[in-house]
Design goal:
By secondary structure, this protein is mainly alpha-helical. It is built from 8 helices and 2 strands; from the N terminus they run H-H-E-E-H-H-H-H-H-H. Strand 1 (about 20-25) and strand 2 (about 30) form a beta hairpin.
């Protein structure tokens, strides 16, 4: 999957996380999560997606270890674990079996309603197809257009051969 296709699939749900400031590097350059991950040669959107799927504690540990390995990371900055905990809080919550996400998971009642609706729709389609078949099979055949049939079935008499004596 290309980077632009991945961004369009993931949407803007990670923007708060990716564009959040981490701090400044040793050269006093502002550093965001996006630029930090890019400096580590890690795709920021894929990493944000992975972190969002992990449990919070695991995601915080992973991000803290990534921050700690940044080149030019100053020693005077706050602890990478503290920064990572703040940043992980900006990620969208991932759906787990215990926590339904923003309208993406269906409950048991919703699944039952969906199945019932699909069954009703299937029965309706079968009923409509059967009704059409009955109507077509009981229709009397229409009159034939014999003009074409007569023209193709017409036999022209042969002309007598020319008489050489006359």
């Amino acid at each position: 999957m290309t980077h632009s296709a991945l961004v369009s699939v993931l949407g803007r749900e990670f923007d708060d996380f990716l564009f959040a400031p981490i701090g400044e590097d040793r050269n006093d350059m502002p550093l965001s999560v996006l630029s930090a991950l890019a400096r580590l040669d890690i795709d920021p959107w894929q990493e944000a997606d992975k972190l969002a799927r992990l449990p919070r504690e695991t995601a915080t540990q992973r991000l803290a270890s990534l921050i700690a390995t940044l080149p030019n990371w100053p020693l005077m900055q706050p602890d990478p674990g503290t920064i990572a905990a703040r940043l992980i809080g900006l990620l969208p919550c991932e759906a787990s079996p215990r926590t339904p996400s923003r309208g993406t998971s269906l409950g048991a009642g919703d699944m039952t309603k969906l199945r019932a609706g699909l069954c009703i729709y299937a029965v309706f389609i079968i009923f409509m197809m059967a009704a059409q078949w009955i109507v077509v099979s009981h229709e009397p055949p229409g009159p034939l257009d014999n003009t074409h049939a007569a023209a193709s079935g017409t036999v022209f008499p042969r002309a007598p051969p020319p008489n050489p004596g006359q």
